[in-house]
Amino acid sequence: WPQRPRPPPPPNSPSVDYEFFGQRDIKDRCAGFGYHMECAFETHPAWKSSSESDLLSARNCLEKYVMTKIADLAFKSTADDAADKALQKRCEQLAFISPAMLEVKEAICNETVFSLAREELKKVNSYRAPGDKIACVTRSCSLIFSAFKFSGGGAAGADEFLPAFICVVLGANVPGLVSNCEYIEAYANRNTLMTKAGYCFCNLRSAIEFIMTADSSVLNIEENEFERLIKENTK
Q: How far apart (Å, rounded) are the C-alpha atoms in residues 136 and 121?
């Protein structure tokens, strides 16, 4: 038989121009997959007698495996570069804010603890799965809670904890923090967001909102001094 002519070689390009189906409605598809897998866990004979904590652990492990594989696509679907840059710029402008300006109790202003909390928060960019990212937030918050505990003041209420955590978020100035929050909210297990991790995540959202809207009226500082320091830190 006569040989057929060979097709021309592909172009010498690092990428191929085509639409990848995996990017379509990826958030809804992941949510649907997670829901159906939860139902499967609850009804499968191997898991039927498992406790709720065992089922939660299984769901979290499955989420970690799947989201680690598709993290690049999923993160891209929720990324907000403009908001990330705006938050970083705002943190730079407000770098002069001290714990005293937020009326944080002097007894818990332990720089070692605050430094460790900032480092934990920065680790959010070292992980791919949303559960691992929110764990960084939880560990950061836990360090602040421990500062309250060892100061002799007992457990911290939201009104006491949030100002201290705002100091940590300001000092950490984590790149891509808004996008990380959007990614966690879109892809983290709903049950996880109903635990202590969810409480810590809500405080992170609140801290970001405070930073973006703060002015002299919510700080222990005169308006003229606030404006002067803002101008000094604006590049």
A: 6
